[in-house]
Amino acid sequence: MVDALGVAVVGFGWMGRVHTQAYARVAHHFPGLPLRPELVTVAEEVPGRAEEAAAQFGFASTTRDWRDVAADPRVGAVSITAPNFLHREIGVAMAEAGKHIWIEKPVGLTAQDARAVADAVTQAGVQGAVGFNYRNAPAVEAARELIASGGIGKVTHARVRLFSDYAAHPEGALTWRYERERGGSGVLGDLASHGADLARFLLGDIASLTADTAVFLPERARPAGATAGHSRASGGELGAVENEDYVSCLLRFTSGARGVLEACRVSVGEQNNYGFEVHGTEGAVFWDFRRMNELGVSRGTGYQDQPVSTVYVGPGDGEFGAFQPGAANAMGYDDLKVIEAYRFLRSVAEGVPYGATVADAVRSATVLDAMVRSAEDRTWVTVDASA
Ligand SMILES: NC(=O)c1ccc[n+]([C@@H]2O[C@H](COP(=O)([O-])OP(=O)(O)OC[C@H]3O[C@@H](n4cnc5c(N)ncnc54)[C@H](O)[C@@H]3O)[C@@H](O)[C@H]2O)c1
To answer: What does each C-alpha distance from 244 to 83, 184, 213, 326 come to in angstroms?
Structure first.
C-alpha cells in the first residue's frame, strides 16, 4: 500500500529545482517506497519563479511567503532550499509545525543555528535529513566499508579536497553567498561543510584542528536583479566580499589519524575537483567526484610499489543498483539527490533516520566553527565533542 505524502519546496533556486526533480524521480528508482511524494506547494520570494516551477513540475499551488507552507495542512514534508540565513528560522518553524524536513547544508550560519534546528526536530519528533549528498555516492559508501573493515590496515592519514572555480570569475555577482549576514561563512559553509562531513563519514570524529583562511577576490559587483546559483554581474556598484574564498586545515581525528582538508571557491582551472585520499598501514583508497563511480584502491601487504587498481562500483555498492544494471554505467550528481530523497522519505515512512541527519549537520558546523576560531586566533582548537 503506497500512501501519498504532501511535500513543499521553500526556495526555488538551484537546489529547489534539484530537490523537486528528485521527488519526481524517486519512485522510478525506488518502487518499493511506501510513500509517494506529491508536489503540494512551492514558496519563493522572487516574483514569478514559484509560478514557473508550478507550471514545469506540477506543484498544486504557489506562495511568496514560506509561512503559508508551515500553516498548510496538506504539507507533510518540506525541502528547505533557501539561502543559509533562513535555514534556522524556516527549519525550526517547519519542525514545530510538525513537518518533516529535508534541509540543505550547512543548516544555518553557525553550529548554534544547526543545533536549534536539530533540537526542534527532536522535540517535534519529525525527521530531519540534510543535503550532504557526496556521502550518498556508492563509491564513497564502498570506500567507507573498505576502511571500516580494515581493508587498508589502520588508517594513518587522509586528504580531503574541494576545489571549484564557481566564484573565480571577477564578474561573479555579489550574491547572498558573499555576505556574512545572509551567507555566514564563505567556502567553509559552501564546500568545507561537505568536506567535514565526508571526513567524519570515512574516518570518524575530528578531535582538534588548525586552520588558515583567505579572501582572494575582495570585491564583487552588486547584481541588478534576482539571482539564482552563481550569477554574473558587471558594471554594478562594487561591494566587499565578507567571507573567505579559501581554507586549509590540519585535522587530528579521535582515532589518532591525521588529515588535511583544503577548499577553495576561486580555483581557476578546477571544476568540482572534490575528493579524498585515505591512507592506511596496508593500503589506500582514492575518490574523485568527477569520476564518481570509480575508486582507486591499493591493498595487500606489498607496502612498497604496491599496485593501485581502478574499481568501478556496481549494483552491490550503496544504491547503485537502483540506477544502473552493471558496473561502469555512470551515475550523476542528481542521482545522489534521488538517493537522498529516498532515504528521507523512507525515514518518514519508518520513523527511523536513514542517511545524513541534522545531527550530522551540527557535527559538521561544529568543525567549521572551530576552523573560524582557529583562523582568527592562529592556534590549534579542540572540536566540541558534546555537539
Ligand atoms: N548539497 C549541495 O551540493 C548544495 C549545492 C548548492 C547549494 N546548496 C545549498 O542549498 C541552499 C540554496 O543554494 P542554491 O545554490 O540553490 O541558491 P540559489 O540562490 O540558487 O537559490 C535560493 C533560492 O531561495 C530563494 N529565496 C530567498 N529568500 C527566500 C524566502 N524568504 N522565501 C522563499 N525563497 C527565498 C531565492 O530567491 C532563490 O531562488 C544553500 O543553503 C546552499 O548552501 C547545497
So the answer is: 17, 10, 6, 42
